């Protein structure tokens, strides 16, 4: 039956459920062979995704919560890797919704999903703000178009339409051309230091393998165990 907006929800759901899922072939994860800490396993999986040609393997979902507990999630790009510390960097405008969330509640989660390999990685932990040198290196390492877009307006605030954006972008391009080393005061690099990490390897037979790491107080390292799929 079609809904008021003209969509046949049941038919759409049926087509969605008929789409192939975890068709394989997929890699195997041997729980007995995983490293003692999650950082090296993440690096290994990311390297394998790059070799396999997985599209945009550095793209991840950042989940935050506001001071009142309201959750929010968005997709962004991995900006830094600390394998030994199991810590991962991302960048944002501190005035954006994610920046405001992290100022009020500096804990977050990161999720990577690579369907071609049937792999999902989840990291959760405290988020710290890196220094201004890190912010400058990240920002100035971007292309001129990306830097101009950052100067064009305040992320997550209302926009009247394409005309307003085009006008602001033209002014921002002029600014970047005149001051190529300028960095927005609000451009911020954040680092999530994982307290928990979970690696999920799909199996077409549905015996999915889930390995969870939990960080213990220093210098005790990590605990590691299996979860029911």
What does this structure look like?
By secondary structure, this protein is an alpha+beta fold. The protein has six helices and nine strands. The chain has helices at residues 9-18, 38-51, 97-104, 132-140, 144-152, 162-178, and strands at residues 59-65, 71-77, 80-82, 87-93, 107-114, 119-129, 187-201, 209-215, 222-227. Strands 1, 2, 3, 4, 5, 6, 7, 8 and 9 form a nine-stranded antiparallel β-sheet that branches. A hairpin with a 4-residue loop joins strand 5 (107-114) and strand 6 (119-129). Helix 5 crosses helix 6. The longest helix has 17 residues, at 162-178. It is globular.
Descriptive keywords:
single chain; about 230 residues; alpha+beta; 6 helices; about 30% helix; about 30% strand
Topology:
Elements: H1 9-18, H2 38-51, E1 59-65, E2 71-77, E3 80-82, E4 87-93, H3 97-104, E5 107-114, E6 119-129, H4 132-140, H5 144-152, H6 162-178, E7 187-201, E8 209-215, E9 222-227
Antiparallel strand pairs: 1-2, 1-5, 3-4, 4-7, 5-6, 6-7, 7-8, 8-9
Rounded mean pLDDT is: 94
- Total strands: the figure is 9
Distance between the termini: 35 Å
By helix and strand content, what is the structural category? alpha+beta
Largest sheet: 9 strands, antiparallel
Strand portion: 25-35%
Give the overall form.
globular
Poorly predicted runs are none
Q: Radius of gyration over alpha carbons?
A: 21 Å
Encode the helix/strand succession as letters.
Answer: HHEEEEHEEHHHEEE
Number of helices: 6
Helix content: 25-40%
